[in-house]
## 1
Amino acid sequence: MPIANPLLDRLRRGPILADGAMGTLLYARGISFERCFDELNLSDPALVQEIHRDYLRAGAEMIETNTFGANRFKLAHHGLESKVREINLRGVKLAREAREIAGQTAFVCGSVGPLGQFVTPLGPLSQAQAHAAFKEQIEGLLEGGADAIIIETMSDLNELQIAIAAARAVTRDLPLIAQVSFTEDADTLVGNSPEEIAATLRGLPVDVIGANCSVGPAGTFEAVRRMLGALGDWSLEIARASPISNLQSPISNPFLSVMPNAGFPTRIGERYMYVSSPQYFADYVPKFVNELGATIVGGCCGTTPEHIAAMRRALDALHPAETPRVIVVEKPTPPRLEETVAGMTSVPRGLRQKLNAGKWVTSVEIDPPRGLNPTKMLHGAAMLKEIGVDCVNIADSPLAKVRMDCISLAVMIQQQIGLETIIHFTTRDRNLMALQAQLIGAHTLGIRNVLALTGDPPRLGDYPNATAVYDIDSIGLIKILKRLNEGRDWAGTSIGANADFLIACALDMLRANADPNELERFHRKLEAGADLVMTQPVYDAAILREFLQKYGNQYGAVEKPILLGVLPLMSSKHAEFLHNEVPGITLTDDARRRMKDAGERGVAEGIRLAQELLNETKDFVAGTYLMPSFGRYDVCGELVKVLEDKILTF
């Protein structure tokens, strides 16, 4: 089953801008060439993340991880060969966190460079050793949640082919970008011509081919022009529209990328400098896009955020910035005063209506941004609305890490996107007065659905010494919401009208099955007034059946609708991490085996497992809420499309 990919979909709609050099900026900010740049992911993550954010602010839509040399052979020079997984995984997480803080839509590409030793017959490494090293690195990037893999600065076609094979042994689901570095004579260091490179890559399972590093914009332009000529007589427009996300066969019409150096480096005093100016790079953007048909443009060694900002302006002059397919209004219109009165039909009530009608409900979880910009989350909500989800549920600073508050994002999504929301609301950060004040304010702004939670303790997050409030727990919060629905606050004072909250409670079925106290605690939530149950993710229908039987034996049938939590698996490593390291999640042996057997097709198998689980449980639950890993809303979107065809309505 081909999996639609957001990067490939974006490339079909027009060119995007990548970032520039990482090493150049690390060097400029005081890191000597003797240091291992990749290791800074562990020892100085703030510096690495700062550079990612600088490029995002400059207008980059694609950022590369600080992992160019993070393979076992290059890391061995610094005694770090045992940290391949850790450095690569952390490199992706730093880039993703920078994207979250920036709050804008951007793609994180896992950077893979040459091994640093030639492969036989040119050097001492066997093909098996090279394949194992590339595979090890790419597994770490995949585990960290990269959106794509970029194999770059390759000079040996043989090594590049081994890297591609290793990447496709790990994943068939992620886009693969293959870039070669050329000398001033327009051949690679070992003598491969642009024509030879293009002819070989065209028959391999890659999505984008191109050149990076090399000798500056002019030399890179000439090399890619020759590559383009070797690809044959095919239409760029057809190539952009072709369904190339099915990677079971070689890609005949790949996209093109151009990411040159800022010219030759020059030693000035004790520092190396690059001479190509930002404006010079900007002047080449029309040539790259219009004459070559490049769909990814960016920079390599010597380029800075200033170069990328100049290229951003030039690219925007050719292709105005992309807008989400569901238009987001610039100035949200607040609800009229009369619409805030309980009972007015203009306030979203689709979730309640569907539950009352016994129709299948699908929600998808969205985490608020860690910074000031909610654009990425709004784009994700717009995409989810377009594919037909009923609502999104918005977390409340999960894992006790500071994020935009859930009410603000919920209001933006409802007013700007027109998609109903469920807010997660915790008692961790608010005393009894603040809880009620914020809930009344949320109701006034049109928020009607609340998942009552106690919340993760601060010691788990960024501020371990912060004071937790916990005036009440989730059961107490449910009682407060119920009291507000009766027109009174907790002290019994009238609030002027009955509120209209749909009250949801959480359920960890594994804990409830194992601990009678947890089963009794869940029963108290229902008695307190919960209208809806939302479960922790499960991977085995037997867990649900066991829970319903245990609860039924002690308290009678669960009479409230249940939304089954589903977290689609992405890979075997992702499955093992969840099973072994995340409390409250247990996978079946069969699920773990299937994910291992799926190999490079982990995303597709994860979707199949989720589909099978929902088909097995559809007679016992009212719907599902999906939890995207690594912000991959597209994977949840694929599952939603499957559910539309396969899940029966009640």
Note: Confidence is low (pLDDT under 50) at residues 233-252, 267-271, 323-345, 646-650.
## 2
Amino acid sequence: MEFLFPNFLWALSLLAIPIIIHLFYFRRFKKVQFTNVKFLKEIKEETSSRNKLKNLLVLLCRLLAVSALILAFAQPFIPKKDSVDYSKKSVSIFVDNSFSMSALSSEVPLIEKAKKRAREIVSAYTEADEFQIITHDFLGKHQRSVGKEDALSLIDEIQISPSVRKISQVINRQNQVLSKSTYTPVSYILSDFQNSISDFETIQDSLFEVNLIPMQDVQEKNVSIDSVWFSSPVPLPNQNNQLMVSIKNHGDSDIDNVRLTALHNGVEKPAGTNDIEARSSVVDTINLNIRKNGWHELELKITDYPVQFDDTYYLSFEVEENVNVLSINGNQSNSYLNSAFKGLRFFELENAKASNISYSEFPTYNLIILNDLNLVSSGLGSELSKFVQQGGNLLIFPGQQLNKESMNAFFEQLAIDIITQSEAETKDVSRINTSEFVFDNVYLGTQRNIKLPQSTLNYLFSKYQSRGQESLLSYRDGTPYLLKYGKGNGNIYLCASPLNKEKNDLVANAEVFVPMLYKMAISSGNRKKTSYTIGKDHLVEIDRKPSQTDFNFEIKGPSNFIPAQTNLGSKMILDTKNQIVQDGYYDLTLNNESLAKLAFNFNRIESDLNYMNESELSAIKNQAFQVISDTADGSFEQIIGDRERGVVLWKWCLIFALIFLALETILLRWWKL
């Protein structure tokens, strides 16, 4: 047995005082004369012996009570380890406050159970120790050590939050505080240890002891709206825009009749029901007919209990009045191009000569066509390269009398294949790639009766695999007629023949030419974001108009704040810095004028309710990790005390002190002489 405060044992010397008082019995007796001396002598001897026995028992009870009380202050314990660490402790306690901790355990939310355990852990340590309380929020006030009372107050303030961190991030955060302390570090992690956040395999050997305390709950089923996207990168007005909705069943049993509803600009309508097999997902399609331009709000819902944070998905998107196309012509505009776009509603074609172009207007176009250019200046080439990198689409029809050296220098600048030679022979296009976006869902049934282009002047290209080419249309001999390159956030389309009816009859094949232009104009390697994820997507990118010189942006919604702003030429980057904690719609304003609507959703990382159990945590091959069962008998204050010091005995000392005082009272009151 050892003592936490052995200096209190000096107080045992005070036990000599009652012993001395007992030995020197200073009470004075008064003599009384009586006639029958022999009878009185027998009574006196019997009474005196009883009195001595009573006094000895009372003295013994008092000595034992005082001794037990002194031992309680010295805090004796039986150590469970070979050596006991008496040093002060720096204790970091992580309380998982993510959405999954709102699940019930014995009719009590896991978050409340975790807070109770955290209080017991704090109570197990002394006033001299220091504490760090940390949650998924990574708040500034949690990035420092506090005393015992302040730690208990911080635990009481913990609430459910949409923020989610990996376990490795939590341990790194704890290390930032513990590494600065001169006390002995120790860590506690109270969590449900979902598989989605338990990245223990990435954690190196920790420099301090990490105690894992799994919070057990009843395994729940869950269905969530996993993701939502438009089949077309650009939604168009007065047309059926296909919206794809992925609904996922995270449970181990099949779920039937999952109802999906859509709320578009305040009007709710049912979108159908789905049967979803266990551990699988379905993609439902909603045909959205958009009747007006501007910004739209769309809210999708499913009915699912008891986990509901992922049952709603918010989207916001802009429907522009027109899709703008620029044709840069070598000589004159192409009448077939003009006719094709004239027949396409919501498309605006603008013609310009290469010698008279406003580069600053490039970001306003969805598609730029190079028609019959024989050479491209370095300035134009640089601006077109920047246009593609930022998400624009570029379609190239080389000129009939092109300058091979100049054009190849331009192609090198774009990082696409270069022209190796030209052929003046008739070639027929025989294959069409219907699996790529440009020709996907364009033709119903077989394409055998489709008339494909024929050309008499053809350019052959190099075949560098690193350029990432994809053939959309091919000749019979396998050489490409129309190539696609994904570059940066945009796309480059390269035709092997000029856009001239005498050399290339593509313009006469309306069933290929018109849908090709249509899909190229609305294609994009960088789709505009329709929603953002709270805690994950904190950067918002918007287009900046050249006329905008004042940048007093403000985000208004469930919370109002001014975001950090970074000017990147034609783009503006806004940083929300984790100031958004509630899902829903937010207005982006400039000088109180609404510019855009932003939709934010909760992170779906915790939708999959799969956890690491105690046996899996115990199997982690890291000596710094220790598992403390949440189902263990007794409070954590006693469990942690036993782990730190062994079997604590001071409570038993207090109990025995009370017992001995009670015995003394019984002897004095009930033992009549």
Note: The mean pLDDT is 85.
## 3
Amino acid sequence: MTTRAPKSSRASRYFGAASVARAKAADVTPANPNEIRPATREETFPVALAAVLLSFVALLFCFSHGFLLLYGDAVAHLGIARRILDSRNPGLVQLGGVWLPLPHLLMLPFVQKLEWWQNGLAGAWPSLICYIASVAGLYRLSRHLLFPRWAFVATAFYALNPNLLYLSTTAMTEPLFLALLIWTTLLTVECIAAIRAERPAVASSRLILVGIFIMAAVYTRYDGWILGAAAWCVLTFVLARNQALWRRVVPAFAVFTLLTVAGPISWLAYNQHFLHDPFDFIRGPYSATAIEKKTMPPNGHHHRGWHNPAWALLFYTRTAQVDAAFWETGFLVMAAAVAGLVLAVRRRMVLSSLLLWIPLPFYIYSVAYGSVPIFIPQLWPHSYYNSRYGMELLPALAIFTFIAVQWLEGRWGGKQPLVLRLMQPIALLLVVLNAFGMMYHRTPLVLKEAQVNSTTRVAFESALARQLRILPSGASILMYNSDHVGALQDAGIPLLRTLNEGDYDSFHAALAAPSEHASYVIAITGDPVSDAVARHPENLTELSILCTTGQACARIYQSNRTITSPVK
């Protein structure tokens, strides 16, 4: 079968001749198996199936080892999703906070099953689906830049990453955002190819899809706000250079623009309506700035990288290297990815794929000016904090590293046929060895951080859960949930039984008179309930004190008053 010859256009200089040419073809059946072209569904299906198998192997391993709830953030995400329906004041108001709402909405159908909330599976199912989608999307995107054999190796490098496989079994937001980052970039590439090929129907559909994915990214992580703005600028620039097609896609472009701006505007409006400050996520009590002030050492020293973009660049790129590669081979991977980036820019190879690099400037700014420290054991102060942020550069490292390798193959393969025959199998073997090295030489960085930072929290919450199980069934409990909702999760106590900060009016009324609003009061040193008990100790009897290493002490009180309406 033959394909129609594409018209030459200036698009080939900016966004890749191969993508533009293939976008014009109504039916793509290449004669050359090494042709760089969009992937077909038949090609993508085996990749997605392999991702399904990998994801379930990862889930079985992590579930059997108790890894699903190591991250305190994962426990908190599940708690937020649970309280949307399991609360004294259920509904959209429970979405409030610094964290964006889409991850919690995706967990909502699963987290209402008590056992899945307790064991963490409620967060694993959405993350596994996102992992599978991201692997399939990365393969499809890489086919716009790489030969099939190198697209397969790049996808394997991404899919076999142990840190990603671990995160795909948790309630963390990285798997979802990576899927949205990859698919937003892929759809942008396809939309641009359709615009240059003057296919208005395809361009219109892709514009609307990009808008939907941007809105989803905006509702997932704040990186998505920058991704959305960048994708909108790229597509607007391309359309502005094609006035004839512009007039034919105006309705779709209007919808695309509306979707792009609707996400940020609606979140600002939500914060204003429920929290009375549109920028609560920036300057509120749970913002990154407020958290840094609480955790700052007594000497007042900020983290290294504070107001220093050079140090921020070093910390973030070093973290991305350790997240992606075994031992110190991360330096080689980063160097190859940068070389691939230079090649892509110089050769105008689908430049819209550069959207994959959006996390780099975002996190440089966040570390330097956004109160977002990153600590890894390879750099001072040699500890663990936010190492998972480096994972967002993994798609860029996977694809652009093998752009450089493919270029090397082209330089050497013509003179050395043996090199051409062996280079891809050797590269694939190294990818597999890299994954095994990361798993067995030392614990993958993201998992190691979760293990190190969960030790004292898990011990404290398990001990507190044992105390909570002793309380009478149906008794109401006054407890601040933002820090240790994991104790209620472990004990299997519905959030409806608790008076907590998620129910603003009833919680603050209970703080003014703890004994009159709850049968039992859980006061953890330093939290609002502890302060309320110190101010209003009347009619409260202390039952027990629970202290564990590295955590504040918890005091359990019983009200001497009769609570007339226990929650069942």
Note: The longest helix spans residues 250-275.
## 4
Amino acid sequence: MNTEQLNRLLYGSKLLAYMLMRRTTYTLTIVAIGLLLYAHGVESDPGNLQLIYYAIDAILAVFVFIYLLRILYGFERVKFLKRTWFEGSLMALILVNHVGTYLLDFPIIYNLFEGIGMPLSVEVYRVFISLYMLMLLVVELLETKVHLKTLQVKPAITFLMSFISLIAVGTALFMLPKMTNDPDGMRFIDALFMATSASCITGLVVIDPGTYFTFSGQVVLLLLVQLGGLGVMTFATFFAMLMREGLGIRQHVAMYEIMESESIAFTKGLLRKLILMTLSIEAIGALIIFMTWGKEAEFVNLGSKIFYSIFHSVSGFCNAGFSLYPEGLYSNPLRHAYVLHLTLAALMILGGLGFPTMIDLFSPKAMRARLHAPWRNWKLMTRVTVYTSAGLLAFGMVTFFLLEYFNTLSQLNFVEALIASFFQSATTRSGGYHTVDTSAVSVPALLIMMILMFIGASPGSMGGGIKTTTFTVIVLSVWATIVGKRNIEIGRRTIPHSVSYKAFAVFTFAVVFNIFFLIVLSISDAQFDIVRLAFEQVSAFATVGLSTGITAGLSDVGKTVIILSMYIGRVGTLTLALAISTRAASTAYKYPDTHLAIG
């Protein structure tokens, strides 16, 4: 029987087959996720766990069978395999592992990772496959025409809701019995705090992640940081691209707004570069960190060392600042690991530059273009981002060195003090790690750090704050007003007044939010002085994660304030304002001019 005859034979049953396959996939994906959550979060009996894993493996086998059926009913089978290469690779991995485990009595994946001291990688493998199938389910639902017609939602609201959903899922997972080493489990407010801190890549903690969470809890923390860093919508859209031939104009507009790109055309191909660049940088960072652990940093086995390296690399690049050590990088094994400090500082700086800037600087296409035409300059956005970031980094380093040389840096020699000052300046831009005792830092240095935290990182980056470009536009607007210029100019270009208004709107929203929340904190947690509370509030709003050590001691009201600050700081005050605002009925009019006394 040739291909054409086979296609004719299958054509009549194609619609029914696809309906059954889709419904089976939906049902089994939900069941698999439920079983995984029960196994890793609740069940402790070894016999019951083994039965659960058998059931999950059976579901994975059905996924393979459904994929083979989809190939059969694809008719243009070569094109189908090319389009679904990633899913096909996963299905082939499942098939090989199942044959080895259940037919040849040689569990390939288990033996592979057992050799490097990571036996739990079998569970991670099952989780990864199930999460992938869940993502496919979400993409299928989002792409259904019925849903697209009924869910006419602004991209900004979708962005806000995606973080709320991630925080809700993270909170529920942290409250499962097997996620923590606490026999009483995790309180709701603490679970919500940690889920928000991870999803909003802040790094403030009310518990010690290294000792309080089990390995499962630490993996959940890592996943929340990665998903929160890149954004849930980024991952969902990327998987949609992976499964389909391309994106529609609605998805391009959404990504344009979310990523704060220069143009809609720029978003074409951005996601693929974004994901690949992120994973590549994090992998290189993890490799360097793995090689720079000192002898003092002891690990249970090789697998633990690998996990610690990956965790800190992802946390560094995502500007999260989480550490599995009690005092972070200030812990004894890491306090003088300066190569590790510089590696994490580099990851934080890269993560804070913004993806549009990184692509303009480091993408092979941009680098080849500059080799062929060395006189071509960076894009204006890149120049503003890089020069402002470098200026703020230098300012923070010099001021911290001068203010703290006889205080927190007094035990270090000159070079060590310079490295420590550079690191504190880099981390205030949204990083969250610290290599000095932050609780002992002087008030003037804390105020400088608060200014740097408030400004934050760059647009389209992992960091928070009002952003470097907003700061630059405000400074240029003020300067233009002082010298009497009619237009705001930079790099032989004129900045539209609408951009200036937007910058001042972001600044005003940020100031109002921080002052209001600081007033509430001064009432709910009056036991702490106002400078420490202000530092905590700005750190939360700018999603930095630095603290003077008062986070765990905050009242439940204080923790709630910090949770709201982290969320608003991550999604952006302007995004929040746009999401809840309504368009003016008409702007095609102008009242007569008037003058008010200013100053």
Note: Residues 1-152 form one domain.
